Here is the input.
Amino acid sequence: MATEATEDDASDAPEAYAALLDRARRWNTVGSAAGVLGWDQQVMMPEGGTPARSKQLSTLSSIRHDLLTADETGDLLDELADADLADERAAVVREIRRDYERADAVPVDLVEEISEASSEALPAWEAARADDDFESFAPHLERHVELKREYAARIDPDRDPYEVLFEDYEPCLSIERAEAILEELRETLVPMIDAIRESDVDLAVDTFEGTFPEADQEALARDALELVGYDFSRGRLDVSSHPFTSGNQFDCRVTTRFDESDPLGAIGSTIHEFGHAQYNLGLPREHWATPLGESRDLSVHESQSRLWENHVGRSRAFWERFLPTFQERFPDTADATVEDAYEAASQVYEDNLIRVEADELTYHLHIVVRFEIERDLVRGDLAVEDVPEAWNDKYEEYLGIRPETDAEGCLQDIHWSHGNFGYFPTYSLGSVMAAQLYAAAEDDIDDLESSIAEGDFEPLHDWLAEHVHRHGSRYETNELVRQATGDDFSADAFVDYVEAKYGELYDL
Here is the structure.
């Protein structure tokens, strides 16, 4: 096992390295403070707080940007350019250099404007979705598109702007690699979904039909978090319009949402966010606010959430342990069997329009729709005003369904209100990575399925902590996967997994 540098031995590093690390801690601490304000805005802030909050977040963004791009940072990086550093310290310098070079290309006034645009767009999106009024949100989306095109041009005016934006979320995998994996998923899943829809197998899809009060669902969500091992002393569960996770290894909070007709949706989103939180909480505490204490970008982060949501939360083993708890909260489901619950949780929907409520397979076609639309927006091949029609057309083409409202169509996701163009592909990349990591964990852990069925998640926690969490950003994405599994990142394990699982379920 490799030995990682600790805060205690930083004093043995070259003076320039120690100074650079200190600067990184300062700008990352500012970013962490902004994260708390962002969480508050989505969860607890009074509705009228937006004008002040947008200025607060904008100011913190500019302070962080100034710290990162200061001449001193560049001088320290220059001094370390030819230094003979240990692997861990070389990784720290690599990560800081990447952030510095991108940030240094972007003027602070643009950073502030993007932050303000995001703060103002969030309540506009929430109102537009509630009112099914895309036109009211369109100016905010248009502003984000223009600002992000300018942002990308500042970083590299000669490259595809969408590719530049994608690198904000996944800097270690090329956009070509991402597109190739999405294409492989589409080629695998479209005929599989067609075969499932033609199958004569009748799953127990009505197992959890009925009305499930929100208060009881929230109690059940807490039950699920306690079962899988969420540390409430370093986190909390709240409700938001779009489930998300925010925090670090000392304080990482999750949110979920509830639909009184769909308890599985709340359980799935809660366990999904738990995966994100468990990754953050598992990062090395001694490296907080440095690259060795930060997660390895969005594809890896999504691998953790999708692993827990799908490979654990949608497994027979999980429902063997969790179904009695579910039935205690909702006695009307007392007749349901473990197999019924597994089939209901694993069913492939014919008519679901909502990504966060999607099944394991059609989920990726939801991602493809968003990926293609935002790519075309950023490249200038699609006008903002044409987004609803393009969205609906693609849903009809890829999923065989057409949204009747924009609230259940192009307004359903929060990401564009933040200007997060390039984020969506990481969901599918993460799902693919989750399958590869989980297959390796199954190989290494004796009878992992039995442990889950018994409610013992410690072996899986320990495996993920050892192979993913403890490394922070030391390794780039493919190297991290190779270290954990012995193989390069690929879709092979995901294809094997879905073919085996859904072949059995639907008798394909």
Remarks:
- Confidence is low (pLDDT under 50) at residues 1-12.
- The CA atoms of residues 399 and 490 lie 25 Å apart.
- Residues 7-163 form one domain.
